[in-house]
Amino acid sequence: MTIQETIRGRRSIRKYTTDPVPDEVLSEIMEAGLYAPSAVNYQPWYFVAIRSPNKLEELKHIMQVAADRTRPSLEKRFAAHPEVIRESLQFIAGLGNAPVCVLAFQEKPQDQYVKNQSNIHQSVAAAIQNMLLTAWEKGIGSCWMTAPVNEGLGDEIRNSFAPDKGELVAVFTLGYPAQTPQMPKRKENRFRIE
Ligand SMILES: Cc1cc2nc3c(=O)[nH]c(=O)nc-3n(C[C@H](O)[C@H](O)[C@H](O)COP(=O)(O)O)c2cc1C
Q1: Which of 3, 63, 81, 105 measures 20 to 30 Å from 29, CA to CA?
Q2: What pLDDT sits at residue 111?
Q3: Is the shortest distance between the CB of 12 and ligand 1 below 6 Å?
């Protein structure tokens, strides 16, 4: 798969098979994140890949609350598409049965070189995208999620899974796809070359 095929072919996957992600594949995916660019080369990230059934259940309890809290905004955004609302809420609460869910934190402590949170968030996002593309190249789907952060559950997730780390930035699922979604239409006229 070329890099362009990976970039264009990657889809957010919200339903997974029960096949586990092999250890060496998971390690390669996690490792790929570490090669992302970062503001002042601070490498401000820390990732926890959750895959033990007990821990996944614990996480899903929190995700159920995230789904409940997300409902009103989804109902507004996708008023004409009830099936999107239903599927999104199901996914957030149950993680699409993904065998792995990665929690993306910022490392701690911050230092003087980190002038603002935007630097940190952009750096962590770059690492996440590296991981998602590496996963896709290996036949593994993913879905990036900020719903639990947006709904005020970041601290609860951090306290449960990585109390010594900084803010939760996002979470993403990993697993073999059990669906083949259409690509959501890309907007036109989003760049120019002068
Ligand atoms: C920062 C960020 C946050 C996202 N949060 C969610 C989320 O909370 N729930 C969800 O189902 N998808 C989430 N997504 C996935 C987007 O919905 C998805 O990327 C978009 O619809 C485009 O589809 P594609 O990834 O298949 O190209 C998020 C993506 C990004 C980049």
Answers
A1: 63
A2: 60
A3: yes
